[in-house]
Amino acid sequence: MQQDQELPAAAGQVARAYPELYRAYAALGEACAKAGPVEGEALRLVKLALAIGAGSEGGVHSHSRRALEEGVPKEALKQVALLAIPTLGFPRAVAALTWIEDVTEGRPSRASR
């Protein structure tokens, strides 16, 4: 379970203000991850793809950071963004690629600029 101190500022504030809700949310995430055979790098890349599909910059940042911490190569993260081109469109894929590169290249996100 990700600790609330590791969360981005706004999410961390909500987790600290409503700890029971955050614990339940985190437990749901863990239960979903354990519900089937997908695990490890594949699980992280699927979660990254879902964040890309949802257009969630924060989610893409979070899953990219966690993937790198788990040893997933940055090239694999970028490939997930490129795989989005035929399904989600070029603009969404390019946006996702820039969000991934915020993390892989150590750039500040647009939200913090």
UniProtKB/TrEMBL annotation:
Q: Where is the Carboxymuconolactone decarboxylase-like domain?
A: 19-102
Give the transmembrane ranges.
none
A Pfam family found in this protein is CMD
Q: Which InterPro entries match?
A: AhpD-like (IPR029032), CMD-like (IPR003779)
Superkingdom, according to UniProt? Bacteria
PANTHER family this protein is in? ALKYL HYDROPEROXIDE REDUCTASE AHPD, BLR3452 PROTEIN
Protein name stated in the entry: Carboxymuconolactone decarboxylase family protein
